Amino acid sequence: MDFEIAKSGRAIEWDRLNSPISNPRFEDPVKLSVATILWGKLLTTSDFKHLVSDVKEIGFDGIGFETRFLPSQVLKKPDLIPEIIKSVGLENAGSYSSMKPSDIDFAVKSKTPVLWVVVRREKTIKEAIRTLAKFAKQARDSSIVLALHNHLGTCFETEEDVTLALDKVED
């Protein structure tokens, strides 16, 4: 269930995050996290730090990232992320991924335990499953957990689509 709230003029989407039990980075199986997809492009590391503080102040346990909205300084040095979010007592709840190899590198350097994978509709279901399986293996080899993010306009929109993908992809 998603909700939108406004804080300091920024819209924040939040949801309940089911942490992967097999990932030791999470202390509890379920945490309350916010996916900061709606706030727009942040220009500076200072803006990012303020947003992270606001998220903690609201009462969340974790924060997830839409990387295209992160400041360029943070994108160039993703190893800053763990230090910034830990400084206010948050956990890294994951990041969106369009299955680019650089997404795994970003996840490793930023200590992002989960990538929420979106598979665009440019592919057939068969091609999408093959691409997803390959990316899942690369992620697993880097100790990154994938979460298939169903979405309108993607290859996996319905429960049936998601079930098919999960049945076909071993990782």
Topology:
Layout: E1 3-7, E2 10-18, E3 30-35, H1 45-58, E4 62-65, H2 72-76, H3 80-87, E5 91-97, H4 101-110, E6 114-117, H5 125-141, E7 145-148, H6 159-168
Could you explain the architecture of this structure?
37% of the residues lie in helices and 23% in strands. Strand 6 (114-117), helix 5 (125-141) and strand 7 (145-148) form a beta-alpha-beta unit. By secondary structure, it is α/β, with parallel strands linked by helices. A seven-stranded mixed sheet has the order 1-2-3-4-5-6-7, with helices on one face. The longest helix is centred in the C-terminal third of the chain and has 17 residues, at 125-141.
The shape, in one word, is elongated
Quickly count the helices. Answer: 6
Number of strands: 7
Low-confidence stretches: 1-23
String of helices and strands: EEEHEHHEHEHEH
Distance between the termini: 26 Å
Widest sheet: strand ordering: 1-2-3-4-5-6-7
List keywords for this structure.
7 strands, 171 residues, seven-stranded mixed sheet, single chain, disordered N terminus, alpha/beta, 6 helices
Quick synopsis:
The protein is of the alpha/beta class.
